[in-house]
């Protein structure tokens, strides 16, 4: 019984060419770039080649790319690293004190979209523990934030805004460029989590105009355990980990050389293929929705259907419980809510657009990828139809 994998927003398989690029760095070229040997020089060159691959994907300079252990660390560095270098009063290079309330200046202020990734939400809550004022900005019923709503919340002490490029649960694409323009008009930094968008949309940080941008290799056919943060030229960040300094002084510890090489290879592959892949991904999603509506007599609701969405993502409320569909269609891998209390990210995002817990319990997210075929989509529709027949509403 072959697996039908439709959860590419969660993680992707490593591309064969990426695996091949990493092989020699597990054994032959096992040294670290800081070692004083000719073989270490070869490792250092491979890391810089990977940096160039990521810069080509993002449309930036190689020295604006900082390698991390993944999207979570990249988001934490983008949020906390910026926050440690700015506050509402004094010089911009002065560190944020642990208790700003003890000073004669108001606390610095941050705005964070309510539907951000857990890594960004948790980093923002940590800022609150440090004394920052943090407002979480809601989205509309389609899962899209309002630039006007964000701007109406700007204060004289606002120093940081966080908005993802695309939401991985709903697929909704956010108006990051317009918001970044308005933020910069007020001297506010903008951090963007792009982990859900890389590999699905073309990237150009100069068009987006963000200050920092996070990505994760395993979201676009690279290895787990490696990511990167784009840091715009001239922007200061403070490290959030301490030890032997690496990556332009922004992170500590030995480099994950095979992971970095794999990330670079995946970035180069994605840069070449993403434009062509978009139309195919969109066609597969349309085929899935058409098939479900036809087979299930229209008894489904496509969430955020009228919003601009990622070409590979469809989130659907079914006519019966999602967990029962998953149980009946065991060869089908899709995403659903797993926890109501405390809410997981799936539940939290759907609640933010006004879905009830009963509706959330009936919702599945389908995300297709480069290896998804039309035959797999058709088989998935059949499996879901059979599962819905067996499951009571």
From TrEMBL:
The answer to whether keyword Iron applies is yes
Keyword flag Lipid biosynthesis: no
Q: Which reaction does it catalyse?
A: (sulfur carrier)-H + L-cysteine = (sulfur carrier)-SH + L-alanine
Transmembrane stretches, start-end: none
- The Aminotransferase class V domain is annotated at 4-328
Cofactor(s) needed by this chain: pyridoxal 5'-phosphate
Keywords tagged on the record: Aminotransferase, Iron, Iron-sulfur, Metal-binding, Pyridoxal phosphate, Transferase
* Gene3D superfamilies per the UniProt record, alphabetical: Aspartate Aminotransferase, domain 1, Type I PLP-dependent aspartate aminotransferase-like (Major domain)
Extract the GO molecular function terms from the UniProt entry.
cysteine desulfurase activity; iron-sulfur cluster binding; metal ion binding; transaminase activity
Q: Which SUPFAM superfamilies match?
A: PLP-dependent transferases
Record family assignment:
Belongs to the class-V pyridoxal-phosphate-dependent aminotransferase family. NifS/IscS subfamily.
Q: What is this protein called?
A: Aminotransferase class V
Query: Which species is listed as the source?
Result: Rhodopirellula sallentina SM41
Top-level taxonomy: Bacteria, Pseudomonadati, Planctomycetota, Planctomycetia, Pirellulales
């Amino acid at each position: 019984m072959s697996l039908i994998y439709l959860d590419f927003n969660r993680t992707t398989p490593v591309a064969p060419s990426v695996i091949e690029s990493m092989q020699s760095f597990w054994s032959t070229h096992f040294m670290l770039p800081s070692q004083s040997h000719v073989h270490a020089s070869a490792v250092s060159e491979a890391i810089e080649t990977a940096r160039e691959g990521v810069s080509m994907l993002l449309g930036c300079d190689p020295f604006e790319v900082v390698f991390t252990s993944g999207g979570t660390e990249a988001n934490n560095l983008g949020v906390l690293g910026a926050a440690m270098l700015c506050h509402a009063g004094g010089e911009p290079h002065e560190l944020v004190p642990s208790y700003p309330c003890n000073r004669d200046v108001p606390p610095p202020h941050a705005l964070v979209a309510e539907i951000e990734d857990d890594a960004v939400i948790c980093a923002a809550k940590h800022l609150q523990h440090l004394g920052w004022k943090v407002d979480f900005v809601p989205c509309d019923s389609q899962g899209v934030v309002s630039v006007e709503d964000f701007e109406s919340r700007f204060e004289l002490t606002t120093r940081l805004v966080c908005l993802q490029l695309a939401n991985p649960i709903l697929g909704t694409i956010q108006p990051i460029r317009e918001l970044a323009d308005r933020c910069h008009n007020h001297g506010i930094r903008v951090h963007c989590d792009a982990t859900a968008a890389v590999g699905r949309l073309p990237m150009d940080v100069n068009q987006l105009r963000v200050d920092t941008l996070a990505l994760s290799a395993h979201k676009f056919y690279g290895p787990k355990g490696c990511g990167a943060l784009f840091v715009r030229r001239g922007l200061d960040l403070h490290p959030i980990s301490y030890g032997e300094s690496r990556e332009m002084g922004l992170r500590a510890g030995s480099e994950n050389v095979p992971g970095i090489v794999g990330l670079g290879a995946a970035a180069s592959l994605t840069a070449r293929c993403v434009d062509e892949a978009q139309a195919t991904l969109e066609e597969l999603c349309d085929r899935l929705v058409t098939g479900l509506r036809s087979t299930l007599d229209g008894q489904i609701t496509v969430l955020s259907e009228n919003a601009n969405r990622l070409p590979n993502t469809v989130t659907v409320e079914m006519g019966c419980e999602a967990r029962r569909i998953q149980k009946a269609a065991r060869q089908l891998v899709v995403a659903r809510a797993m926890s109501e209390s405390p809410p997981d990210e799936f539940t939290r995002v759907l609640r933010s657009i006004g879905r009830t817990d009963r509706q959330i319990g009936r919702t599945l997210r389908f995300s297709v990828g480069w290896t998804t075929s039309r035959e797999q989509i058709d088989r998935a529709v059949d499996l879901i139809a059979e599962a819905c027949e067996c499951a009571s509403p």
